[in-house]
Amino acid sequence: MERTLNWSVLILGIWLVISPWILGFYAINLALISDTIVGVLLVTIVLWQIFGE
Questions:
Q1: What is the structure's pLDDT at 53?
Q2: What pTM value is reported for the model?
Q3: Angle between helices 29-51 and 2-23 (to 10 degrees)
Q4: Cα separation of 28 and 12, whole Å?
Q5: What count of other Cβ atoms lies within 10 Å of the Cβ of residue 25?
Q6: Residue 20 CB neighbour total at 10 angstroms
Q7: 14-23: per-residue pLDDT in tens?
Q8: What's the pLDDT score for residue 3?
Q9: CA distance 48 to 22
Q10: For residue 49, which of 15, 4, 6 has the smallest C-alpha distance?
Q11: Where are the domains of the chain?
């Protein structure tokens, strides 16, 4: 269960990083920066959990 949750959060983090361009709100700087920062943090933490074992 935990492994599935980790992969789900990883996909969510990747989505947060690419969503400003896919959904077209990359011109809104605050949304772009916040989505990118949160997405990168999620991806980093989950990858650390998955491969740090």
A1: 67
A2: 0.86
A3: 160
A4: 20
A5: 12
A6: 20
A7: 999 999 999 9
A8: 78
A9: 27
A10: 6
A11: 2-51
- Burial call 37-49: b when 16+ CB within 10 Å, e when fewer: eebeebbeebeee
CA distance 46 to 36: 15
Instruction: Match 């920062």 to its residue by tokens.
Output: 37
> Which amino acid, 50?
I
* pLDDT value of position 32: 94
Give the mean pLDDT of 37-42: 97
**Closest to 32 in 3D by CA, of 42, 19, 43:** 19
Residue with tokens 């959904």: 23
Quote the CA–CA distance of 31 and 8 in Å, as a whole number.
Answer: 22
Tokens 């990118």 map to which residue?
A: 36
